[in-house]
Amino acid sequence: MANTYKGKIEAIEGIQFIQREGREPFQKRRLMLDVSRFDGMTGEKREKHIIFDFNGKNAILPDSYKVGDYVEVAFDVESYKANKKDGTTGWFTSVSGYKITAIGVYQNKPATQEAQTQVQTSAPVQPTPTQAPAQAASDCPF
Q1: Cα(29)–Cα(71) distance, rounded to whole angstroms?
Q2: pLDDT, tens digit, for every residue of 5-37?
Q3: Burial of 97: CB neighbours in 10 Å, binned 0-12, 13-18, 19+
Q4: What percent of the chain has pLDDT over 90?
Q5: 11 near 29, Cβ under 8 Å?
Q6: What's the CA gap between 49 and 124, in Å, rounded?
Q7: In principle, which of 10, 69, 96, 127 could form an S-S bond with 32, CB 3.0–4.6 Å?
């Protein structure tokens, strides 16, 4: 199963060319996705933003989208070890996107005040008594 998030594109950076010692440079591009959610019980917005890295051949994937589009991003979480110039070792983690899919209208907003009022003021539904089956009496001791 793929890791995915749905949300609204907040920012798309330009392609960066990263130089590597003794190797060819590679392409990197970042996309920020707003995946904030609304709590249906409290009406509170839970802020959450994720930055996805699109590397190498995937750096061109965000070209088809613009800020404000609602998309689903498939990604991998990768960690790698790197030796720093000062001789220490560091670990780095990146969220690498590999697929972007446009989604239709993405509904993740609080209910309107009118809808909330209608739900709160509607009369409770009274349960109707059920008829007992004809064979209610039995020989069972419990």
Answers
A1: 17
A2: 999 999 999 999 988 778 888 899 999 999 998
A3: buried
A4: 49
A5: no
A6: 40
A7: 10
